Amino acid sequence: xxPSARLASILDPVHRRLRDLTRSSLAKHLPRGxxxxxxxxxxxxxxxxxxxxxxxxxxxxxxxxxxxxAIARLESRGLVARAPSSADGRRKQLALTNKxxxxxxxxVAADADCAxxxxxxxxxxxxxxxxxxxxxxxxxx
Length: 141
Hints:
Order of helices and strands: HHHHEEHH
CATH architecture: Orthogonal Bundle
Distance between the termini: 25 Å
Mean pLDDT: 94
Largest sheet: 2 strands, antiparallel
Number of helices: 6
Helix content: over 70%
CATH topology: Arc Repressor Mutant, subunit A
Number of strands: 2
Strand order of the largest sheet: 1-2
Radius of gyration: 18 Å
Number of domains: 1
CATH superfamily: Winged helix-like DNA-binding domain superfamily/Winged helix DNA-binding domain
């Protein structure tokens, strides 16, 4: 069997396991009322929010209007703040508030727990090799 055919046959179960581990980890770490979607938006704001809503939309793989609605919801909850851009006064840059940053840190902890659980069945050498190979795939895409 070709490697690509073997990979194709295991992608779905790996995806399901990763999704289940992610849900479990997020439920354990995120405060009540914060959804996985909220956490994704907060992460995007943390990464590219200084570039504005359009950059957040691109990072999320969604439309600019959908990102605007999500950010407005998080802003109303005190998790995101908007400020005029220092480079272009017509533009708003986004940043996490202290409360938003705490949730993003909980998201990071959830990701670490998820990764630990996913890698647990593997030997130390296999873990290192898998992470290196996944990093190559991530860099290629």
